[in-house]
Specification:
The chain contains seven helices and seven strands, in the order H-H-E-H-E-H-E-E-H-E-H-E-H-E. The protein is of the alpha/beta class. Strands 3-2-1-4-5-7-6 form a seven-stranded mixed β-sheet, sandwiched between helices. It is globular and about 50 Å long. The protein starts with 7 loop residues before the first helix and ends with a strand. The chain binds S-adenosylmethionine. S-adenosylmethionine binds next to loops. The site of S-adenosylmethionine has 19 residues, from loops.
Length: 217
């Protein structure tokens, strides 16, 4: 089943293990923050249960997290404590009520959940939600390895086309998106060899990803 067909709220309610919920901020995002690439008012789109947003708020940014899943947002809100952080249920293809609000957007594994029409609507909605000069960071699946089920595979051309109008792409490179899946779990999901599959030092599957950075014109 591909991501556009997934009922995310059902996944959050019923799955004992959610592949992208690693219980800590996404290492790619931690790198970006350390490099000084996050600034101002931050939108975490498709924030899930909020670990990336909580991390950024703990680093001193004002963060808004949005997700279409009420269950994910309820879990995220439970982590707010006294941080400068809010979570809302919202459809990222519309982002109504968020116009001209953000300096940085973090899209950690959201883009590859959308079909072509949704991607175009989403990037247009982001354009409305961002201030001039705002920066968007996208992490999305670049390649399917070992026949493993997962979200849509996104081509370089897809990203270049979707961000062609109103954005300037300043970085588009291959990267690793860290999941919670271990080798033992993957063995049960595919009959293909895992020789080409990479894992981090903690044994977590590294999904081959794109890291895109684009600046709003
Ligand atoms: C693969 S998860 C990534 C969650 C989180 N960003 C992370 O990296 O752990 C994708 C998230 O996008 C959300 N999502 C998918 N389509 C959406 C839409 N149209 N509007 C809002 N959220 C959406 C899902 O509910 C899910 O939480």
């Amino acid at each position: 089943m591909s991501a556009p067909d997934l009922d995310f709220d059902q996944v959050y309610r019923e799955s004992p293990l959610v592949p992208w919920v690693i219980g800590e901020p996404q290492p790619l995002l931690v790198e970006l923050e350390s490099a000084g690439e996050i600034r101002g008012d931050v939108l975490d789109v498709g924030c899930g249960p909020g670990d990336n947003a909580v991390f950024l708020a703990s680093r001193g940014y004002h963060v808004t997290g949005v997700d279409g899943s009420p269950t994910a947002i309820e879990r995220a809100r439970a982590k707010v404590a006294d941080l400068d952080l809010e979570f809302e249920v919202a459809d990222v293809t519309k982002l109504e009520g968020f116009e001209d609000r953000f300096d940085t957007v973090v899209d950690s594994a959201l883009y590859h959940c959308l079909d072509d029409d949704e991607q175009r609507a989403y990037v247009a909605a982001l354009h409305r939600a961002c201030r001039g000069g705002a920066t968007v960071h996208v992490f999305c699946q670049a390649e399917q390895v070992a026949g493993l089920p997962g979200p849509r595979v996104i081509s370089e051309q897809n990203l270049r086309d979707t961000f062609a109008g109103g954005w300037r792409i300043t970085r588009l490179r291959r990267a690793d998106y860290t999941t919670v899946m271990t080798r033992d779990m993957l063995v049960r999901m595919t009959e293909q060899s895992l020789d080409e599959v990479r894992f981090d030092d903690s044994g977590r599957f590294l999904m081959p990803a794109w890291q895109l950075t684009a600046v709003r014109a």
